């Protein structure tokens, strides 16, 4: 008996006649037409395209592709398994054709792969389409297409897209070796293209009182690579669960001891006079250690082999692909972390060796330990709320807590670090934008938890007043104010199950809404910002996807929206604001998880640059600037509705919950000496 997995056509009679000699009569009467299978597939292809006699519908990104289950199963092992269970739903035409949703596959790529199943041909217009088609072929396990595209893409490498190719899944070892050699050879050009701006960033700051053992930091070609290797070696041994998002969630502050070993400053003993940021760093390290202990051994990460300082990590699980010296004596590197790419920024800070007594720490200040003031929390955790800046204060209103839609409003005074209650809004409201126009806070549209709203509330002279209603009820819109024209714009949104292209303009002097030029793409959950004389719509989502695209409209002379630089990652519920000359985006959700990342744009024709990650992942975050400081307020981290506040004092700094900017690093010697000698100061 043959195994059931042996695929054969017919009823078995051909097997019984194998090896038998045919007669002359049989040869004369029989027909062999090698083109018949191709004609049959061609006819089936024509039938499905005309929506006749198909028996399955694949759906990806809102696009339906009719096909025959048998053809799909023969072409794709993935679809062979996926089409075996009952369908998720039924198609309206014809009613008997089941519908199967294909996740994480580009709609155009799916269409091309189905066409390939019938014709043996795929059409690829450009390298971007080739990468999308590669991912779809990998996902559906159409190996012939995947292998073909891998070979062709590696023959057309360019600095601008080699990182995109390196990120493709399931590349063979020889392809990876070829890519890594190309990246290392052209790393200078890769950095200049801005291709690394879209990558997550691992930030490491090394404090040293002498040279690292085996690493030359002044001159020498191998110095940048060796520095990055040294820092990555430490991460391999110490990072919890070796999770890339965790690695990128904070700056790792390391101390280079006299003998060249690396120590986490969070492990150093407390010293009287430690600066607030070192206290905070040590406190968070203790909290992470406690969470790891509480989680138990079941969640412990699989240990990685230890490496001596300066040794290379084994490729491809963890490797420094390329590195170069950057400004200020720092090192910029490209890492491969368990198949994913990340940028690394390793900076140096020389500190003076401590005296015998060691009375001061590296981050010394005149404050006592644990005396640093932290940003006060909101009265309640909230998400999808409105945030605005009025007279030097943050105004936060509405949103969701875990149980209900809120009417409450409160304001934060940075000078006193206090929140105080404001009058409740006239109705509960969430999923709405807030903005300030003529010293009045406007809360526009949104949802009361049951339906979209067309009402507009204005906080004026200490009370909420009703203003002219919107032309339609909507939620999830963005908002921006033209300070010169004194107009408020409502951008996109959600209404009646549709993502809107509509843009509305409000004139405070007339208390009237009018139409403005519509967006090119319908989007909701986007962020609206006024920057450099133009309206900006950042990210959001359409019917099926989170968006990375941005659009911009120049008010003076612009009659239509034009594409802006795309965000490094697709996201919705993202925060946006203007900080000095920079356009800032922070937080949001990629559809699967809340995000920590911060990015900024310095010129309207430039590319987004990665900034420091927030301490908390925040979707539906309130983002605003007061007194030259960026504040992130509330939001949803994937588990909790947040009441905490964090801020960013400078582009080169880190997000913090402390009320004072980080102090300068002065000396860290003696911390390590005291701990190793068993000495702890008060």
Structure description:
This protein is an alpha+beta fold and 682 residues long. It has three domains: 36-155, 2-Layer Sandwich (Potassium Channel Kv1.1, Chain A); 199-294 and 304-372 and 665-676, no CATH class; 386-648, 6 Propeller (Neuraminidase), CATH 2.120.10. It is built from 15 helices and 35 strands. The strands form nine sheets. The chain has a six-stranded mixed β-sheet with strand order 7-6-5-10-9-8, with helices on both faces. It has a four-stranded mixed β-sheet with strand order 2-1-4-3. A hairpin with a 5-residue loop joins β8 and β9. The radius of gyration is 30 Å and the shape is globular. The termini are far apart. 42% of the residues are buried.
Fold topology:
Blueprint: H1 13-16, H2 24-29, H3 36-49, E1 56-60, E2 63-67, H4 69-75, H5 77-82, E3 89-90, E4 98-101, H6 107-119, H7 127-140, H8 143-155, H9 162-166, H10 173-185, H11 187-193, E5 201-208, H12 223-238, H13 244-247, E6 251-256, E7 262-264, H14 276-295, E8 318-325, E9 331-337, E10 340-350, E11 386-390, E12 393-397, E13 409-413, E14 418-422, E15 434-437, E16 440-444, E17 456-460, E18 463-467, E19 478-482, E20 487-491, E21 494-495, E22 498-499, E23 503-507, E24 512-516, E25 527-531, E26 534-538, E27 550-554, E28 562-564, E29 575-579, E30 582-586, E31 598-601, E32 609-610, E33 622-626, E34 629-633, E35 645-648, H15 671-676
Parallel strand pairs: 1-4, 5-6, 5-10
Antiparallel strand pairs: 1-2, 3-4, 6-7, 8-9, 9-10, 11-12, 12-13, 13-14, 15-16, 16-17, 17-18, 19-20, 20-23, 21-22, 23-24, 25-26, 26-27, 27-28, 29-30, 30-31, 31-32, 33-34, 34-35
Helix pairs in contact: 6-7, 7-8
């Amino acid at each position: 008996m043959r195994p059931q997995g042996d695929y054969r056509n017919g009823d078995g009679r051909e097997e019984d006649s194998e090896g038998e000699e045919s007669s002359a009569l049989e040869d004369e009467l029989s027909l062999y037409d090698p083109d018949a299978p191709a004609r049959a597939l061609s006819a089936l292809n024509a039938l499905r395209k005309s929506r006749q006699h198909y028996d399955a519908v694949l759906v990806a990104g809102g696009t339906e592709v009719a096909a025959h289950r048998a053809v799909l199963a023969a072409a794709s092992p993935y679809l062979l398994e996926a089409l075996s269970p009952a369908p998720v739903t039924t198609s309206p035409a014809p009613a008997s054709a089941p519908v199967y949703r294909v996740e994480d596959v580009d709609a155009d790529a799916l269409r091309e792969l189905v066409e390939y199943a019938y014709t043996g041909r795929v059409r690829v217009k450009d390298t971007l389409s080739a990468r999308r088609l590669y991912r779809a072929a990998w996902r559906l396990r159409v190996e012939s297409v995947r292998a073909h595209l891998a070979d062709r893409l590696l023959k057309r490498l360019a600095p601008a897209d080699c990182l995109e190719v390196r990120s493709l899944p399931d590349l063979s070892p020889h392809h990876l070796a070829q890519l890594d050699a190309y990246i290392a050879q052209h790393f200078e050009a890769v950095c200049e293209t801005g291709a690394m701006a879209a990558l997550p960033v691992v930030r490491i700051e090394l404090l040293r009182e002498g040279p690292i053992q085996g690493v030359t930091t002044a001159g020498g070609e191998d110095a940048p690579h060796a520095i990055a290797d040294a820092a990555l070696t430490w991460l391999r041994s110490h990072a919890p669960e070796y999770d890339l998002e965790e690695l990128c969630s904070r700056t790792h502050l390391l101390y280079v001891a006299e003998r060249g070993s690396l120590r986490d400053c969070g492990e150093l003993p407390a010293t009287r006079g430690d600066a607030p940021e070192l206290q905070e760093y040590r406190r968070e390290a203790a909290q992470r250690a406690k969470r790891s202990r509480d989680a138990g051994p079941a969640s412990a990460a699989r240990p990685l082999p230890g490496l001596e300082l300066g040794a290379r990590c084994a490729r491809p699980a963890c490797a420094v692909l390329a590195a170069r010296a950057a400004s200020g004596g720092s090192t910029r590197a490209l890492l491969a972390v368990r198949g994913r790419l990340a940028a690394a920024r390793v900076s140096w800070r020389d500190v003076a060796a401590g005296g015998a007594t060691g009375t001061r720490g590296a981050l010394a200040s005149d404050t006592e330990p644990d005396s640093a003031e932290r940003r006060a929390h909101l009265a309640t955790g909230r998400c999808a709320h409105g945030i605005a800046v009025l007279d030097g204060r943050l105004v936060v209103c509405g949103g969701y807590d875990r149980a209900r839609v809120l009417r409450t409003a409160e304001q934060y005074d940075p000078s006193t670090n206090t929140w105080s209650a404001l009058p409740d809004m006239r109705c509960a409201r969430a999923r709405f934008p807030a903005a300030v126009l003529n010293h009045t806070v406007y809360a526009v549209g949104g949802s009361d938890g049951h339906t979209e709203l067309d009402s507009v509330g204005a906080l004026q002279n200490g009370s909420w007043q009703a203003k002219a209603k919107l032309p339609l009820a909507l939620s999830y819109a963005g908002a921006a104010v033209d300070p010169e024209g004194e107009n408020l714009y409502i951008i996109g949104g959600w209404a009646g199950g549709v993502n809107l292209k509509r843009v509305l303009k409000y004139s405070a002097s007339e208390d009237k809404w009018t139409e403005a030029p519509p967006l090119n793409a319908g989007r909701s959950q986007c962020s609206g910002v006024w920057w450099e004389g133009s309206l900006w719509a950042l990210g959001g989502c359409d019917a099926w996807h989170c968006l990375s695209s941005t659009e911009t409209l120049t008010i003076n002379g612009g009659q239509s929206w034009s594409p802006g630089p795309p965000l490094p990652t697709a996201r919705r519920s993202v925060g946006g604001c203007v900080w000095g000359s920079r356009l800032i985006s922070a937080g949001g959700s990629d559809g699967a998880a809340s995000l920590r990342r911060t990015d900024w744009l310095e010129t309207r024709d430039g590319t987004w640059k990665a900034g420091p990650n927030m301490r908390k992942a925040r979707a539906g975050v309130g983002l605003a600037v007061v007194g030259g400081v960026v504040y992130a307020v509330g939001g949803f981290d994937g588990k909790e509705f947040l009441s905490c506040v964090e801020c960013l004092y400078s582009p080169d700094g880190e997000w913090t919950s402390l009320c004072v900017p980080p102090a300068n690093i002065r000396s860290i010697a003696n911390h390590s000496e005291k701990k190793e000698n068993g000495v702890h100061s008060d």
